[in-house]
Amino acid sequence: MKSLSELGAQPIYMLWSYTAASIGSDCPLRYRGKCLDVDAIIVRGLGRGLSVEKYLYRYAFLKTAESQGILVINPTDALFTARDKFTSLRILHQHGIPVPSTVATENPSDVLREVERLRKAVLKPITGSLGLGSFMVDDTDTAYYVVNLLLTLNQPIYVQEYIDKKDNRDIRVFVVDGKVIASIYRKAPQGYWKTNIARGAKALPASPSSEILETALRATSVLGLIYAGVDIIEYEGGHVVIEVNASPLWRGLQAATGVDPAKELAEAILRRVKK
């Protein structure tokens, strides 16, 4: 909001719980009971632990906004596709972008068979962020308890090949409007495998290879995103995209690199609004 204000825009902060969408009205979108009159909506979060009904409503609200000519960043369909870890990786794979071996299922037996095949796997909910709810398992006994926990929460299970990271780190590449603006290594604490900054990983400036940067740009483009944090693991023999985050946080990246993604994003949005 500060960056938008400095560029001459008039941002307002919106909470989902005060929004409304309507059909057959001269006021298709409302906020706090008043007609919403904006040029763009920047979605910085859909919320965690949403019911199916809230998830569908928030999708409907944003699609209504787009139908009224309002610019939604990231675009609604792209945002919701990226939120679905399995579908986003499937699309990347179909476009030749390297991703880990992954299975999504509601069947506990499928999970246990996959863990047995992979020998080391990551189990997590099919949606989520900040590394919350992810478990690394290397035997079917441990997997059995994790599976039952996730099923108790009525969650489908997402099973992904565990890949040994080079130097126990991954790479976050931040893309805005077709350009890489910054990259960091996210180095996990000693003896820990999660590389999320929110889980204690350290952000360090990075200069990835041109091949990795091109992968990040392609992944963002293939999913139809205007901006994204693309998470990539380097390993002996190559690299894979593990996730494309359509509402990435950037405090750690900004502190490590000095680059201000808010300013870059605000400029990109205003360019598109003016068009």
TrEMBL record:
<keyword id="KW-0067">ATP-binding</keyword>
<dbReference type="InterPro" id="IPR004666">
    <property type="entry name" value="Rp_bS6_RimK/Lys_biosynth_LsyX"/>
</dbReference>
<dbReference type="GO" id="GO:0016874">
    <property type="term" value="F:ligase activity"/>
</dbReference>
<keyword id="KW-0547">Nucleotide-binding</keyword>
<dbReference type="Pfam" id="PF08443">
    <property type="entry name" value="RimK"/>
</dbReference>
<keyword id="KW-0479">Metal-binding</keyword>
<dbReference type="InterPro" id="IPR011761">
    <property type="entry name" value="ATP-grasp"/>
</dbReference>
<keyword id="KW-0436">Ligase</keyword>
<feature type="domain" description="ATP-grasp">
    <location>
        <begin position="89"/>
        <end position="270"/>
    </location>
</feature>
<protein>
    <submittedName>
        <fullName>RimK family alpha-L-glutamate ligase</fullName>
    </submittedName>
</protein>
<dbReference type="InterPro" id="IPR013651">
    <property type="entry name" value="ATP-grasp_RimK-type"/>
</dbReference>
<dbReference type="InterPro" id="IPR013815">
    <property type="entry name" value="ATP_grasp_subdomain_1"/>
</dbReference>
